[in-house]
Amino acid sequence: MSNNTQNTRTLSQEELERWVVITCRDLGLGTENADSDFFGAGGTSLTAIRLIAKAEEEFGEDALTPEELFARSSVRDIAAAILHSTQI
Q: Rounded CA gap, 36 and 16, in Å?
């Protein structure tokens, strides 16, 4: 995946779910699949900030807002929020 969102193809929901699972694991969380919950897997406010920063680095500014992450925190919902923000 590229840091330049204008040069990347649109990713599918499933590809984004895989990215979220892998990124959460890299942050030390026990995410398993799209049904995993970020906070249920051990996410804290600090890891939330780190996930948001990684999403912005990978997909562009405001790819994932704190409000979206705290309101709906399953891997599936996080991926959907990123997908929605990158299609705007």
A: 14
